[in-house]
Write the structure tokens for this entry.
Amino acid sequence: MLFKDIPGLENIKSTLRRSVRNSHLAHAQLFDYPTGGGGLAMALAFSTYINCENRAEDDACGICASCAKMAKLVHPDFHFIFPIATSKKIDGKTSEAFLPAWRSFLLENPYRVLPEWLDHIGADNKQGNISVEEARGILRKLSVKAYEGEYKILLIWKPDIMNAASSNAILKILEEPPEKTLFLLVSDQSDKLLTTIISRTQRITIPSFSDSEVRSYLKQNQFSDGAANQAAYLCDGNLSEAIKLVQESEDDRSAWFADWMRSCYKFDVAHLVRLADGYDVMSKEKQKGLMEYALRLFRDMLVWSHGAGELLRVPEEELTFVQNFSKAVNFESLEGMIEEVNTAYYHVERNVRAKMIFLDLSLTISQFFQRR
Ligand SMILES: [Zn+2]
């Protein structure tokens, strides 16, 4: 991971580069970032930059022996600690046993969230944990002198999930750190960290990605403009979410939504039943995703009909739809629809039969159309 691979966040990058050039490296740094943001990627790029044998002003070289090892996450002076859980696929009690899986997980892309990791190791429905044994083992991990680089680096991902015993073990190490060692605590829930840990670290606050940064990342990664625009619109700077959205490419939400609304408008009950059958067999995540999408568009229509259209972040293709739709319903109906979709979402979450929820909702929306 190099700095240039991460979209935007230029201020953070230049602060980090400066700290390396001036040798002002705090021994413990907290990469505090929003869920789905650039925290892990930034910590990896930073570590690569620190270890590079031939670094330029703005980035690591990307080709020296050290960069090559960092790119595969196998540098001998670079260590990881991350949450693990009892897994169907992997047998082990510390992150050591999970390392190969962790590397392949991160190399896919570094904008990831804990549930994805737990899913990756076949531990779904569990919490993930950094055990106190693991925390105490850190010193052993670091006791060998730096092999190749100047620094040994330990990256701890999600220190925020540690219990009191593990947190205190880490705290002890941060209070008396071994020499020439950097601790990078990478957290998307820093409010859950012990204040005593926070006070031992230098905090790097990483803002969430802007829509245009999300778009440019997705386009660079060969996703179509349309898919990239739509995902950026929906994900609120959460790149993990955006990547998931574009990968579900067959899931063309806007076409589905337009079809649904047209059928409600025409009160085409036969087609609504077909849509309900389709909805019934989707995964719950997808069912919720479609409801979220509907909510988002309805809210945008509300904004539009209030004459504040310039506030909207809707992509071009959807804007026409929003405009036309806003003409077909009045305020009160839109507000009613939003309420109904909210209720439907609530029921989907609570496992009420999806077909009934959807059909009910569709008929209610049809009535709203007729009420204008
Ligand atoms: Zn290099």
The mean pLDDT is 88.
